[in-house]
Amino acid sequence: MKLSHGNIWDFITKGYHITVPVNIGWTINSVQPANVMGRGVAKDAKDRFPGCDLWLGSQFVLTATYNHPMGDPEWIKFYPHAPLIFFPTKSLNKNEPWMSWKRKSDPGMISAHLDHFPKLVTEHNLGKVALPLLGAGNGGLDPGDMKKLIQEKLGSDNRFLLITPTDL
Question: Which CATH class is domain 2-163?
Fold first, then answer.
């Protein structure tokens, strides 16, 4: 894995797919489910790629219908309309899915998803993937801990580029 600093969105022009940390949840906008993408990299994705929140919400409803456990690779979603990978860091609030965004990110779920990530990237034939410090922004997890976890899980795979703040 490589390390860099800067704006993660600048790496699209360099051929990278962007990993977008999201919650597993949805709200109903009119008649279609939408993922709540109100802050951070997720909000940037929604602003840059209108409609991705609707697509993701419908995908999460389908995945939840089949009762996939948290950490299952089925929760990681490859967006077919742009170079985005939606990577859940916050688990589903089953009673109120529209409130899942309020949860703290789950390091165990992130770890489980990271275990599956290289294989999924291979299956989807992606060459390069940029990712932020998953769960460390609006997810409330310690950036140093998340950097260590990501490096432990993906460190030997040069397809991945971890974008960190300059002071970390």
Answer: alpha beta
